[in-house]
Specification:
The model has no long low-confidence stretch (mean pLDDT 95). Helix 3 links the parallel strand 3 and strand 4. Helix 1 packs parallel to helix 5 and helix 5 packs across helix 6. Helix content is 46%, strand content 14%. It has 6 helices and 5 strands, in the order βαβαβαβαβαα. It folds into 2 domains: 129 residues, Rossmann fold, CATH 3.40.50; 27 residues. It is an alpha/beta fold. The structure holds ligand C2R. Ligand C2R binds next to strand 3.
Length: 178
């Protein structure tokens, strides 16, 4: 994709099923992006070189997802001044609590905007990127306003449908989204 504005990276190809939630959302907003597999642990030199080049290439936001001891987002934040959004991935026997703490507990001075664990966090990472990019892009801000309006309308229509069912004994199970 030419002139990407968002970079989405992850520590392993095994993270793709989670991080594709972020990809889906940036695509929905027509934001140019690039996706890479890079590991601060396994490919430290390649990761540092890639991240140092982001700002010069016009990339505005970096989303970094990793599981286990997830140092990827923090290491990236140490190598660039662009905002880094971290997604802790629930790939380890600790179900992502290890990744959450290693992503969120950055030492003062090197922040990572840390999302929820797993698919919902990946989805929110992309929404957070949209919010950042919207600051300087009124057209994108307008589309994001419509997205929020639709989200509210969906909740209201579900509430109306639910109150119509009360006492009727026809309640279906909610749809699992993530
Ligand atoms: P494999 O499935 O490849 O063994 O990876 C990845 O994000 C993945 O969730 C297992 C997990 O290791 C994570 N990983 C990190 C880093 N590199 C890979 N946390 C890193 O640099 O922080």
């Amino acid at each position: 994709m030419e002139n990407p504005l968002v970079a989405i990276i992850m520590g392993s190809d095994s993270d793709i099923s989670v991080m594709e939630q972020a990809v889906r959302l940036v695509e929905e907003f027509d934001i140019p992006y690039e996706m890479k597999i890079l590991s601060a642990h396994r490919t430290p030199d390649e990761t540092a070189e890639y991240v140092k080049g982001l700002a010069g290439r016009g990339i505005k936001v970096l989303i970094a997802g990793a599981g286990w001891a997830a140092h990827l987002a923090g290491v990236c934040a140490s190598q660039t001044a662009i905002p880094v959004i971290g997604v802790p991935i629930d790939s380890s026997p600790l179900n992502g609590m290890d990744s959450l703490l290693s992503t969120v507990q950055m030492p003062p001075g090197v922040p990572v905007a840390t999302m929820a664990i797993g698919k919902g966090g990946a989805y929110n990472a992309a929404i957070f990127a949209v919010r950042i990019l919207s600051l300087l892009d009124p057209e994108l801000a307008g589309r994001y306003a419509s997205f929020r309006k639709k989200m509210a309308e969906d909740v209201i229509s579900k509430q109306e449908a639910e109150s119509g069912k009360q006492g009727a004994g026809s309640r279906e199970q909610g749809v699992e989204r993530f």
